[in-house]
Design goal:
It contains six helices and seven strands; from the N terminus they run βααββαβαβαββα. It is α+β, with helices and mostly antiparallel strands. β6 and β7 form a beta hairpin.
Length: 230
């Protein structure tokens, strides 16, 4: 697996890196960040009884954290598709493959005080790269009411597959926008008009050309679905 790179801070910019989530200490820090995101943005809408278990989930293929100057400020997970996932089934039908050929990007969020450094894009890039390394196609879904998050994914090149309805609780139906990463192995975070130049606001690990993006939009993806991307 490619080693994570840490950018030098000789120019005074904060140092950002993305690495694998490791151990209970990381998980505890991720829960703390999630609590701040929940308070600020309402993600997730229903605070889980066991947030650590919610982050770890089932059928996890990988999980990564973003560190800014040595502190955990963001998280993303990658999982196998589950029976009630909408995006994998849609991609499967379109591509003529089994749903097992997909991987779901989820649990994506960034601390409110760490936004503006392209962290959301970096985390998405890392999860998508892992999926492709495994021969899987990255997909995700987001509540339709979160138009800002949807705009972010589309700016990063993700393709809208469909808008579907799901019943999360008795009497509660929600609309989900289902997305798939670009076909052909294109990097969804380094293409399009949002790509940063060398004047990006902070040096970063994993992608020197990653764009500063609206992580707040992704973090506001308020959803009860245990599988939706943040």
């Amino acid at each position: 697996m490619r080693r994570n790179r840490v950018a030098a801070a000789s120019d005074g910019h904060p140092v950002l890196r993305v690495r694998e989530r490791a151990g209970e200490r990381d998980l505890e820090e991720c829960v703390g960040v999630l609590a701040r995101v929940h308070q600020a943005d309402g993600y997730p809408v229903n605070w889980p009884a066991e947030p650590g278990a919610w982050l770890s989930g089932a059928a996890v293929l990988g999980a990564w954290v973003a560190e800014l100057d040595g502190r955990v400020v963001g998280h993303v997970g990658l999982s196998r598709s589950a029976a009630d996932d909408a995006a994998p089934a849609l991609w499967s039908e379109r591509a003529g493959v089994d749903t097992e050929a997909t991987a779901v990007v989820s649990r994506l969020y960034v601390a409110p005080d760490a936004r503006g450094h392209g962290i959301g894009a970096l985390l998405m890039r890392r999860a998508a790269r892992e999926a492709r390394t495994r021969g899987l196609h990255p997909v995700l879904d987001v509540v339709s009411s979160d138009t800002a998050a949807a705009a972010l994914y589309e700016r990063l090149g993700w393709e809208l597959l469909a808008v579907v309805e799901r019943e999360w609780e008795p009497g509660q139906r929600v609309a989900l926008r289902c997305y798939a990463a670009p076909s052909g192995g294109a990097d969804p975070t380094t293409s399009g008009p949002g790509t940063a130049s060398a004047s990006a606001p902070a040096p970063v690990a994993e992608a020197a050309a990653a764009a500063p993006v609206a992580e707040a939009a992704a973090a506001r993806s308020a959803t009860r679905s245990p599988r939706s991307a943040g």
